[in-house]
Amino acid sequence: MLYPYVTRPDILVVMSQEAYVRFAPELEVGGILIVEQDMVRVSDLNKDVHVFSIPATRIAEELGKRMVLNSVMMGFFTAVTRLLDAEAVRKAVADSVPKSFLDLNLKAFRERIGIRRNRSHRPRELRRLQPATGVCPGVGMSPAVKNHHR
Fold this sequence. Notes:
Blueprint: E1 11-14, H1 17-23, E2 32-36, E3 50-54, H2 56-63, H3 69-81, H4 86-96, H5 102-109, H6 143-148
Parallel strand pairs: 1-2, 2-3
């Protein structure tokens, strides 16, 4: 069976070292790399790549359930890229999780990572996004990544 395969992604979300090694070389020049900072060591980037990191696993564990890791990462993706309306993504998260974990997933998505309820997240042109620290507390670019971008 054939399926579409992205060969040069503009945005790549990586949550394991194995995925980083396999897919990071395919990231488009000027693309955005979002990594789980406790699980992925960024190295050997030879392109103009904007790297953002978040301790998503740690945040999920601090919330009490590692299973909300994907909701943390979805919220961070939404905040970093501003490609999707935060309310639309919040609704998608709410529609896709078990009702017994709805509140925890929404908290992981919204409150813990700095997604504001003000709906000010408008799409921006990808090429204009710049790496930034302070997207949420304890999140941003690691020292190794900062040195790479100098």
